[in-house]
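batch_manifest entry 22 of 60
target: PhnB-like domain-containing protein
source organism: Chryseobacterium potabilaquae
requested by: lab member K.T.
priority: normal
notes from requester: please return tokens only, no post-processing; we will run our own comparison against the previous entry in this batch. if the run fails, retry once and flag.
--- input ---
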Amino acid sequence: MNNDIFPCLWYDGNAKESAEFYCEIFDGQITADTPVVMNIELFGQKLMLLNGGPHFTKNASVSLMVICETEEEVQNYWDKLFDGGMILMPLDSYSWSKKYGWIQDKYGVTWQIFLGEKLTSQKIIPTLMFIHKNNGKALEAMELYTKTFPNSKIGNILRYGDGSEGHPISEPAENIQHAHFEIDGYSLFCMDNSYDHAFDFNEGISMVVMTDDQEQTDRYWNILTSDGGRESMCGWLKDKFGFSWQIVPKRLIQLMSDSDPLKAQKVVQAMMKMQKIIIRDLEKAYSS
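--- output ---
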């Protein structure tokens, strides 16, 4: 499984509490514990929890789908996530799953708990919802993402018009009800939705991509910021759909983790001034 690509969830000070909550529910472990960044591993998958402050709030435009093998497993996760949470779709039997529900937990993260077949070894699959001006662009987004990253492919696509039970009048038949794609071996789902939700993509949930070198960093950055995307600070960007990515060279993490706190601090200060991360400038700051 590719742990160089993983979701980042934004928090206002309670990342550690949330990390402990998820590790207890999903029998995971905390792999990094700092005041700003918590890393956890659930089912061998990495998630980053970032104490970034009050600026952004997580919402259901990006949810985490958990694929379960038994009804008991579905019920177990549902009951625990329900503690202080809010139901978005009741736990019930649907045409696509015998037992499924959509819930927002007390930390604002939304989960789709789903009884069904795993497509890959990945158990938790981020799911992007294309709404408002992005509605109808899920396929275009998959094409962009699979073109950007190596070892990528578009998998099964179910369009609203394909359903045997008819489809919601509000949804164009050609729009995507559910689709699977992979970027560098990492699975994601996506869907179009024409409902006028009070939210959209924001920095509350982003995807982190760890890069091997400057060439790879430049390639991802240049493609994702082109054609209406935009650069932000510290390796963050928004693509043309407004979805947030963090393009992070592995060298940055090595330098920031140096045993000499003064050198590490110089690297952090240099990084804070950057939009795209420039490895040689980090090296210069480290050596200065």
